[in-house]
Amino acid sequence: MARFNRILLKLSGESLQGKQGHGIDPERLNDYARQVKEIHDLGVQIGIVIGGGNIFRGLQGAGKGFDRVKGDQMGMLATVINSLALSSALTAIGCKNRVLTAIRMEPIGEFYTKWRAIEALEQGEVVIMSCGTGSPYFTTDTGSSLRGIEIEADVMLKGTRVDGVYTADPEKDPTATKFDEITYDEVLDRQLRVMDLSATVMCRENGLPIYVFNMDVVGNLRRVIDGEPIGTLVKA
Ligand code: UDP
Questions:
Q1: Which residue's alpha carbon is at the smallest distance from atom 6 of ligand 1?
Q2: Which of 60, 65, 97, 143 is the most exposed place for a label (fewest CB within 10 A)?
Q3: Distance from Cα 16 to the centre of ligand 1, integer Å
Q4: pLDDT per residue over 128-174, tens digit each?
Q5: Which residue puts its alpha carbon closest to atom 23 of ligand 1?
């Protein structure tokens, strides 16, 4: 019996680059798809929000003279590209799934509503919710908080390339230590960059726990579902 009935899985676009350093690494993509299928087979209902940082980020564009809103729209379209790639990889291994878009673009995906997402989850489909929130000036972290709350997920699993929340950035500070558990308030007070501020506040206001773990190690998603303490739990 899995620990969670319904989860929101946040995948970073940047991690999709894998060893290539840009775009979509098929190896990483297929690893992600297999990990998702593994827990889907256990009966877990899975909503996924995927980033677009491997392709485009609005803020980076703004630094190069792009209009911020158009840049963010480009970023949201990048999440659609990643969502379609993941959908394709899931379908290839026999895992039923559906892409919803927060911006209308049929026939690429159906327009997102909470009820459409829940209906598909209850029918046993993995639901990939693309375009983040559908609005500029947000990130897919905020998009996943929002979707996690809307679909009434038990937890948001934030798959990253580090294995949890640290006192400082472990990629920069070798003395940084990992938390097994931490409160939303402590994350905010210490200004830990687990997720952006608005996403963390949203989870706190709506009581959505966040579990941060390293998704780039194959098998870790299953380990989280099995209750192995491999990451960091953020809660009240
Ligand atoms: N974005 C946006 N609104 C949203 C979600 C995303 O405008 O609700 C844009 C924003 O420009 C962002 C880009 O899409 O930089 C890609 O998303 P993100 O940076 O969150 O991707 P990740 O870092 O997870 O790869």
A1: 139
A2: 65
A3: 14
A4: 999 999 999 999 999 999 999 999 999 999 999 999 999 998 888 99
A5: 53
CA of 158 to the centre of ligand 1 (A): 15
pLDDT tens-place string over residues 89-129: 999 999 999 999 999 999 999 999 999 999 999 999 999 99
| Ligand 1 atom at shortest distance from the alpha carbon of 141 | 20
Q: Ligand 1 centroid to 91 CA: how many Å?
A: 25
pTM recorded for the entire structure: 0.97
Closest to 124 in 3D by CA, of 44, 225, 224, 48:
44
60, pLDDT greater than 90: no
SS3 letters for the chain? CCCCCEEEEEECCHHHHHHHCCCCCHHHHHHHHHHHHHHHCCCCEEEEEECCCCCCCHHHHHHCCCCHHHHHHHHHHHHHHHHHHHHHHHHHCCCCEEEEECCCCCCCCEECCHHHHHHHHHCCCEEEEECCCCCCCCCHHHHHHHHHHHCCCCEEEEEECCCCCECCCCCCCCCCCECCEEEHHHHHHCCCCCCCHHHHHHHHHHCCCEEEEECCCCCHHHHHHCCCCCCEEEEC
